[in-house]
Amino acid sequence: MTKAATADLALRGAATDTVIEMFRARAFAWKECHCIHLARAQGIAMGHDLPAVPSFNSAQGARVALKKMGVASVAELLDIWFERHPAPAFARIGDLLTLPGETELGRRDDALAGVGIADGMGNIFGWHASDPSRLSAVTAAQAHFVAAWKL
Question: How far apart are CA 3 and CA 6, in angstroms?
């Protein structure tokens, strides 16, 4: 690995650590702390200029907000903001990945995919339905990744 590549990974790691620490103790909440806030914060930390996130209070409100932004899903929004990897396996530290979303009733919801930040070790940091009280590492999730974006 070249010095430039090593430096790039170090910078990506530092930016990622900063965002994870910013969100680590925060519970998932539709109104103020959710996957799009996490994705936007990571994008900004990685040097992207991104618009503010509209406010909403529920999964239905999130769908309405996405529609107002001209998209039907979280994945479509991320496609506007970032370049998609050809496959999730290409993600490296600091990139974003999605997992299948769920409704409040536990049903799959592709429009509201869960977003997490790649840790470079095959895991992502995001909120998990088993403990939405804090951001945590979703380990051994590789088989469930739906898509990934380059940051």
Answer: 5
Q: Which of 45, 46, 85, 39 is nearest to 62 (CA)?
A: 39
Closest CA to 116 of 131, 132, 96: 96
Residue 145 has pLDDT above 90, yes or no: no
Say if residues 10 and 122 touch (Cβ distance below 8 Å): no
* DSSP one-letter code for 114: E
Q: Say if residue 126's pLDDT is above 60.
A: yes
Cα 107 off chain centre by: 20
Between CA 33 and CA 41, with CA 35 as vertex, the angle to 5 degrees is: 80
Beta strands, E only, the chain: 83-84, 96-102, 108-118, 124-128, 131-138, 147-150
pTM of the model: 0.91
By the 8 A CB rule, do 140 and 36 touch? no
